Amino acid sequence: MAEKKTVKVITVNVDLCHGCRACEAACSAFHADPKYGIVNPARSRIKVHWDPLRNLFFPVYAGPYTNAECMGREKYIIDEKEYDECMFCRATACPSRDLFKEPDSKLPLKCDMCEEREPDEDPLCVQVCPIDALVFEEREEEMEEEPKVDELETSLDYLANKFGWEKILETAYKLSEARKEEAV
Ligand code: SF4
Ligand code: SF4
Ligand code: SF4
Fold first, then answer.
1. Span from the CA of 60 to the centroid of ligand 1 (angstroms)
2. Can you give the residue ranges of every domain in the chain?
């Protein structure tokens, strides 16, 4: 049977967000040292963008690390207004912007879903949002199954009987060299 992994997601309802920034304050306080010792939204792992033309607020929480700018940027058109391709990106530490960098050290700030919270509690930003614009969901998803060692051995034995070990090793070597060249 396929193994399962736990996936944690925060769904953001932009239609509800009214830009109070309580989520930013709570996130920064929860991750302060000592915990709750200081409120500094510059250290928050969730940032609320504001579109002044339409008075819309877009909370974005910090996603995966990236050391380089991405190749294929996206543009968003919402109600005929074009948004900057980086605005909704959750990448942390991308050289193109300072959004999710710790202001003093410049180290990336990544959302950890408040991993130190009590197991039955929602993440802090979700708890403090007064109108449920942020909703936390934890669900089980099936992982792609890794081949077991004995299954691999059986498969290799089969191939060895059919083609001989020399051919298999030669092919594995060629494939490995080709992968290395692709990676350069
Ligand atoms: S911040 Fe901008 S350049 Fe960097 S990964 Fe995101 S979209 Fe690409
Ligand atoms: S889940 Fe926790 S770490 Fe992530 S943005 Fe919300 S408060 Fe910050
Ligand atoms: S706490 Fe809720 S309503 Fe306030 S800015 Fe954050 S997401 Fe928006």
1. 13
2. 4-142, 149-183
